[in-house]
Structures are given as C-alpha cells and as structure tokens.
Amino acid sequence: MRVNGIYIWGAGLCGEKTLQNCKENGINIAGFIDSNETLWNTEKFGLVIYPPKEILQKKNVEILIAVANEFTSMEISEICKKAGVKFSISDVIREKFTLNFVRIDDYICCVIYPFESSFNKYTDLMKSILETINIKPIPIDNYEYASFIWLHWFESIANENDFRQKIDFLKKCREKDKKIIWNVHNKKPHEIQNAENVESMMKLLAQLSYKIVIHSHITIDVIKDICENDKNILSKIIFVPIPHYAGAHGNLLTTNSLQNNKLKILFFGQIRPYKNIELLIKVFNDLNFDDMELSICGICMNKEYEQNLLNSIGCNNGIKLDFRFIADNEIPKLLANNHILALPYSTESSLNSSAIILAFSYARTVISPNIGTIDEISDKSLFFSYDYKSEQEHEQKFKEQIIAIREKYHGKYNELLNLGEKCREYILENNSYSKTAEQLKQVF
Predict the structure, then answer these.
(1) How many CB atoms lie within 10 A of CB 258?
(2) Three-state secondary-structure class, residue 255
(3) What are the pLDDT digits (tens) for 174-210?
(4) Which of 163, 182, 379, 424 is the least crowded, having the fewest Cβ atoms under 10 Å away?
(5) Quick check: 240 and 213 in contact, CB under 8 A?
(6) Domains contained in the chain, CATH given
(7) What is the DSSP string of 151-199?
C-alpha cells in the first residue's frame, strides 16, 4: 500500500532529531504531530505541526513516534492502533535513529490539576514548560506515578461532598509522600458556596504544601493572612511569572478593520458576575459616545444572566453582544479588531489575570483595576489602571479611564496600536518561557 505521508509525532527535541535523521536517510516528512494545542498550526523547520485528530483521520499515513519517554510513547501507540494508523517505534526509531527512551520509573512526574481547560491556555502552557525542565505532567488519575501534585484552584469547593473528597485526596497524598504544590491564583474563589470550607481548605493547603507558587508578589499578603505570618509557610513561596501567550491561539494578525475615528473596546471570556459586565454596560450607556463601540463576547453562565444583560443594554447600538463560546482560532482576529481589552475585575477576589497577559501577547493594551498581574508590570505607561474601594467608586474610576482615553486619543485611536506593540515587546521579554522555566526549577 502506498504511503501518502509520514508524520513525526512529537515536536520536541526527539522530534527534531528524528527529522534530522530522516533527511540524512532520504526520508521525506510531511509534518509534525503534537498533543500540545499551543503548537497546532505553527511551523517547525518549515513543517506544520498538526493536531493528532487531523492526521489520524487521513488514509495511508505513517507515524513515527518521537517522544522523550516510554510511558507517553505507549499511550500514543494505543491511539494509533485504535485509529488503524500504521506507526513505528522499534523498526524505524530504534534501528535507524537510535533514540533512547526514558522509562517512566526514571522520569519525574507531576500531576497537574486540573489537567485541561477549554477556557484558558494557562494549563497547556505550563505543561509545555514543565517538559522543558524534564518534568512529565500527568493527569490526577495517574497520581500514583507522580512525585509532585500541583494543585490549581483546588480551594474552589462545589459542595460538601466535593470538600470531603478533596480533604481525603490530600490525606492520601501525604500518606504516599507526594509533594503538594499549591498554586494561589486568587484571594479567594470568585464564587463561594461555603466560606468556612474555603477558608479551611486554604489553610490546609498552606500547611501541607511542599511549595506555594504565586504569580504576583502581592499574593504574599494573602498568604500571610491565611497562615497568620507563619514563617515556615511563608518560606515555601516561589514566584513564577505567567508565561506569555504569543502564538497560543494562533498567529498575531497585523491587518484589521480599525479606524482612527472609532474607539473599539472589547471584553471576551466567560461571562460571570465577578467580571462586572453590568458595570461595563452601565458606563457605556451613561457615556453614550457616538465614536465608541463596546463588544462583549463569550458564553454566559446561564440563560437568566444572559437575559438580564440583554435587558440592561436597552437601545444602545454601540454595544455589540456575542453570547457564545469563542474558539481559540477566533481570538487573534477578535483582538486585532479592537483597540483595548476592558477587564473591570472585582478586587475582592481577583489577583491574577491570564487575559491581561493574553492581550499584551497579541499587541493590545488593557483597562483594569490594579490587581496582581498589573502590579507585576514595571512599565506603568503600557496600560490604563485604577483603584477603588466600593462598587460605586469602581464605576466612577472605570468611567474616568474611558473618558481620559477618549480625550487623549480622540480622532487618532489607532495610535493605541503603537502602545499595543510596546505591550507585546514587554511581555515577550519579561514573561518568556525561559524565565518561567527558571523559576519553576526552584519549585521542583
């Protein structure tokens, strides 16, 4: 049977070595495959990196498995078998290329919880960076293989049963000498069912953790409050910068439909009360400037909330709504066709924002309260920020920022794109994968 294409599964160092040896042996490679979504549709050595599903659906293809450890290669082998796709490890990789596979027993594994998120690339980026420092990320179902358990948003408690199950899991980890890493993302969960359970969980996580990862230095004050200035707990804290998102959702778009005479402001993401969408709408209704447009894009938490937001808009044609899940490949275009990302977070719970890092990565500035992510950006000229102490003051301060931007850039709104370029330059340098990796080495 004629083979229509040979693909290398694994776009890392083993994949590079495999490609090099293929060229030396006169074997043409059609492209790479990788499970890491952040690499999809990008290129490496002139070859496209494809999602596994896209290639597995093709007829008469052959896959060369080139990953760094035997555990993963066995998983990929099973996937290929089920798809009926010809693959090779021993016949091609071992005989022709002499690649050394690392046994799972010799590999440092780390559970990532949650392992995947359809709303945020943060987890995928962190998993990719862990691989670069020879840490194998695995899901919680395989925690018996792990030396480390890295918990994100673990203090978000759905109900009493969820609370008990999480307590039991932490006890099990301690019994098996697993090293727990607690990642503190927020001052507290944005939506709390039982404040007492949340407080208990956060105190327990602080006590049991081997290390505590923070993404902004003001988080230290939050942990001080939790542990009552316990020096032993505070000594566990490691600062790790959130990595940039450049390329995570596709390539940066340099063309757009923006005009100097229309200021276009965007909110996108999950639409939930703590993100203060009502405040956004009210400010735009009050100002009612004819040279401004607000787009709110994302899926609502429920239909009732969606209807309430629709009702609050009234007859304002300057507010555009798109209440649906925004796919990854839509994000670059969405950002390209707006001047600013508006993020009026609640400072009662918010500390960090991947959305701010994402906006900077795609060359757009932001309007935001002074949360931890904003505080970490040393060049304060790159964004529009404010402080507030009450909901009423929040509305007023946000409105003042909009008015100030309009006064400064009126009739020349595309100058904000120059500011966006500076944002991108800053984040690529200061939130590089290498800097995140260097700090993660201190955790493990």
Answers:
(1) 16
(2) coil
(3) 999 999 999 999 999 998 889 999 999 999 999 999 9
(4) 379
(5) yes
(6) 5-97 (3.40.50.720), 107-240 (3.40.50.2000), 263-430 (3.40.50.2000)
(7) EESTT---SHHHHHHHHHHHHHHHHTT-EEEEEE-BSS-SS-S-HHHHH
